[in-house]
Amino acid sequence: VHNNPVVTLLDYGAGNVRSVRNAIRSLGFDIKDVIFLFSPLFSSVSFPDFVASFALLPNLLEWKRKKTLDANVCAIAKRHSQCRTTHFPWGWGICCSHGCANPKGVRMAEALCTYIKNDRPFLGICLGLQLLFESSEENGPVNGLGLIPGVVGRFDSSNGLRVPHIGWNALQLMKNSEILNTIRNNHVYFVHSYRAMPSDDNKDWVSSTCNYGDNFIASVRRGNVHAVQFHPEKSGGTMLLFLADLYVDIICINLLITLTMNETDAGLSVLRRFLYPKSFSTKVLEVGNASKLAKRVIACLDVRTNDEGDLVVTKGDQYDVRENTKENEVRNLGKPVDLAGKYYRDGADEISFLNITGFRDFPLGDLPMLQVLRYTSERVFVPLTVGGGIRDFTDGSGRYYSSLEVASEYFRSGADKVSIGSDAVYAAEEYIRSGVKTGKSSIEQISRVYGNQAVVVSIDPRRVFLKNPDDVDFKTVRVSNPGPNGEEYAWYQCTVNGGREDRQIGAYELAKAVEELGAGEIMLNCIDCDGQGKGFEIDLIRLISDAVNIPVIASSGAGKVEHFSEVFKKTNASAALAAGIFHREELGIGSVKKHLSNEGIEVRLTPY
Ligand code: 1PR
Questions:
Q1: Ligand 1 closest atom vs CA 316
Q2: What are the φ and ψ backbone dihedral angles of 419, each rounded to 5 degrees?
Q3: Is 531 in the pocket of ligand 1 (CB under 6 A)?
Q4: How far does residue 499's CA lie from ligand 1's centre (Å)?
Q5: N or C terminus of the chain: which is more exposed, having fewer CB within 10 Å?
Q6: What's the helix, strand, coil split of the chain in %, to 5?
Q7: Distance 326 CA to ligand 1 centre (A)
């Protein structure tokens, strides 16, 4: 029987660690799971165990979400009746008064520093990199471990830079770091608002930088200690190694041969090289070129239960998902997990699932949707967004669920971001009316705990033509194509419940309000264009992408490759999303990317 090697995964409990776990498992490792940030040192796993194994810290340190952290500590302390909590300079740790390696209770910061100073194998991811620095300005200043000179600060958005930095960039490699040696010009996935800057003081550590507004530190390395600001578990890769590992068990093929089969994958190769360091030659550094942030191509799967009770991918024609037949059945374009896998292999930069009947069903009662996420996150290593029904909810038995609880279940099931539709409209209306941020809206609650990069607002507007822009109190545009009666202006009226109900708020006003409330990204649909294949609503997308400082995903209407280049050339959209053309196989994601690249638009080209 083959015993897989073990990775100790330190999880702080407020992020999508399922993806890291899935990626590590796919690489043939078992995981020593950790209930909470620092518990392995003191409770279930003894300190010697910990130092004997690899340590991965995905998003480890909870600098900015201290309140949640405190709540988590209390919850865990309740479960472990003999535990006591310890206050660390930058958060909370927990230690058990029984069975711990150090009966006096080693402070986690010291333990972690010792581990790293002893050059034990360590890989920090995202916040796992930031905690190595002296301090962070995020909800601070707060102290870090102080192992690397420097302060983690926010990107400067004063010159129009969109923050958070979400998407795919290539790295500028600075020195040899075996785990990055296959990256070359491949793009890797970043999602963060804070970053550390290279300086003379930390140049011994910096192994690569990335250019976004300025050159920030993308990775550090010293001996066996590595940390990356990007997410390798979300930066693509294939599952060949998993199969290879089975072969190793059965017929003892040399692991090295199979390991090198897949050396061009950007994301999983980083994890693979960290986990199997001796299997790779330390070849000469191949320096990648710094890049601009790549424009993303996103595949969207509208999901709902059909009349037979099966969860299917459907597609609307201006949001009408029923066939124009006597039976009037729900259009069925395939199975969600299969299609997501296909789009991933075709090179989609992200996959979005929209539970389009979530506004009337309780999403946590919709277990098939959660299963879809779980299965998908086992085989898809790019970001997953899920939307539909994210709101406060009281079920039939009177049990109340906050929108945060609903979102948390989605995150636990493998989502990286949640998308909020109807509830964002109500929150924006209330905010515009009162001018007060209550902190209670779904956007505020979820972004406070998971970060604003995890909160997408999906806008479903309908175009309303106007003869005179002064006829409404909402922001209007002069349209490129006049309306049926020669109208030269339009405003974009928001809707809720999948376009079934119009609201008295424009897409412009909504976008500004949700940005202020803490949304990190906007998915901008247009009911008039949905499923029409005649191109994106450029006037709307230009209006919104110029109005906000967060990334905007252009959606609805793609019908040919030129529509994608048009939207990127004429607007400031960061990503373009399509559904129907991909589902009907009229266009492949690869051909869209190739076209964009030929047009001089930076995209992430996948090697598989
Ligand atoms: O209101 O928080 O429960 O969220 C519901 C979510 O479901 C919203 O994001 C809303 O956009 C979506 N939704 C609701 N009803 C429909 C429907 O189609 N009947 N789908 C629906 C919206 C629009 C896009 C579509 C693009 C691209 N789908 O996601 O994929 O228009 O399509 P195309 O390339 O074929 O033109 P809540």
A1: 18
A2: -120, 130
A3: yes
A4: 9
A5: N
A6: 30, 25, 45
A7: 24
> How is residue 37 written in tokens?
């940030």
Quickly count: other Cβ atoms within 10 Å of residue 287's Cβ: 14
Q: What is the pTM of this model?
A: 0.85
What DSSP state is assigned to residue 582?
H
pLDDT digits (tens, 9 = 90+) for 334-387: 999 999 999 999 999 999 999 998 877 776 766 678 899 999 998 899 999 999
115: nearest Cα among 206, 40, 207: 40
Going by C-alpha positions, the residue among 178, 46, 55, 32 that lies closest to residue 115 is 55
Residues 6+ apart with CB under 8 A from 62: 12, 14, 37, 68, 69, 91, 127
pLDDT tens per residue, range 115-143: 788 888 888 888 889 889 999 888 778 88
- DSSP sequence for 223-275: TTEEEESS-GGGS---SHHHHHHHHHHHH---HHHHHGGGTT-SHHHHHHHHH
How far apart are the C-alpha atoms of 349 and 306, rounded to whole Å? Answer: 28
Tokens linked to 452:
């604003």
- If one residue of 500, 525, 564 were mutated to test the ligand 1 pocket, choosing by the most ligand atoms within 8 A of its CB, it would be 525
> Pairing relation of β-strands 6-9 and 30-32?
parallel
State mean pLDDT over 405-410.
91
User: Has the ipTM of the complex gone over 0.90?
Assistant: yes
pLDDT, tens digit, 9 for 90 and up, residues 301-322: 999 988 888 899 999 999 999 9
Say which residues have a Cβ less than 8 Å from residue 158's Cβ, sequence separation at least 6: none
Helix (H) or strand (E) holding 79: helix 66-79
> Which residues, listed in sequence order, are joined to residue 578 by a DSSP beta bridge?
299
Pairing of the two strands 188-192 and 122-125 = unpaired
* Nearest residue to 236 via CA among 294, 158, 283: 294
Lowest mean pLDDT among 129-138, 190-199, 247-256, 412-421: 247-256
Cβ(541)–Cβ(568) below 8 Å: no
- Our answer to whether residue 252 is catalytic in this structure is no
The answer to whether residue 269 scores a pLDDT higher than 60 is yes
Annotated active-site residue 126? The verdict is yes
Could you tell me the two tokens for 584?
A: 């009907």
How many Å lie between the centroid of ligand 1 and the Cα of residue 408?
21
Q: State how far the Cα of 33 lies from the Cα of 222, in Å rounded to an integer.
A: 26
Find how far residue 95's CA is from the centre of its chain. Answer: 31
Give yes or no for a contact between 211 and 172, defined as CB atoms under 8 angstroms apart.
Answer: yes
DSSP codes joined into one string, 165-189: EEEEE--EE-S--GGGTTTTT--EE
**Overall size of the chain counted in residues:** 608
